[in-house]
Write a structure and sequence with these properties.
The protein has 184 residues and is mainly α. It is built from 5 helices and 2 strands. The protein is elongated, with a radius of gyration of 24 Å.
């Protein structure tokens, strides 16, 4: 704690050397400090590197989640154009949106703070499932062009791609699992 009062005794500057692990702990501190200042009749504001880091981080997190939603809308158009079918495009986007929405919902239920780090998880999850879905849509459309019925085309697609989709998903998940060791 390093207090500084200006010569006119109007401004008080306090530098707090408090390390915050995530936005949740910082936001609790900020809200508590604001309440205490209000209760004491003081007018003040937080500034500094940590304040701006967490404020910008929260803004990036919100915008990142908004971009994931926009990405899902764009992917619906892409999958529909790729397959030339609104039904296939819609099914493909559901296969992408449900895991991402489920991941975000699961994080909220477990009390994770949706900060910059956790919002990146949504973007990474969307990227992972989109890659596999793109391959599956292309293969399904090719099977349908060969004259297979929808169920037969889907069955053939799964039989041809299950191994590679499983392996790539496991490799990506294991590769990204090391990010759990990072404080962000």
């Amino acid at each position: 704690l390093e207090p500084y009062v200006d010569t006119e005794r109007k401004d008080l500057n306090i530098a707090l050397g408090i390390p915050f692990r995530n936005s949740e702990t910082f936001n609790r501190f900020r809200d508590d400090l604001n309440q205490r200042m209000q209760d004491a009749g003081l007018d003040g504001q937080l500034t500094g590197r940590q304040y701006f880091f967490f404020e910008v981080g929260d803004k990036v997190a919100v915008e990142n989640l908004e971009s994931v939603a926009l990405g899902i809308a764009v992917l619906l158009i892409c999958f529909t154009v790729m397959s030339r079918s609104i039904r296939v495009g819609s099914a493909a986007i559901l296969a992408n949106a449900i895991p991402v929405a489920g991941c975000i919902g699961f994080m909220v239920l477990l009390g994770f703070d949706l900060d910059i780090g956790s919002s990146i998880v949504a973007a990474v999850a969307l990227g992972m499932v989109v890659d596999d879905t793109g391959h599956m849509v292309v293969r399904y459309v090719a099977n349908r062009r060969e004259g297979l019925a929808p169920r037969a085309a889907a069955t053939k697609m799964v039989s041809e791609l299950w191994y590679s989709v499983t392996i790539t998903t496991l490799v990506i998940a294991i590769g990204f699992s090391v990010t759990n060791l990072a404080p962000l």
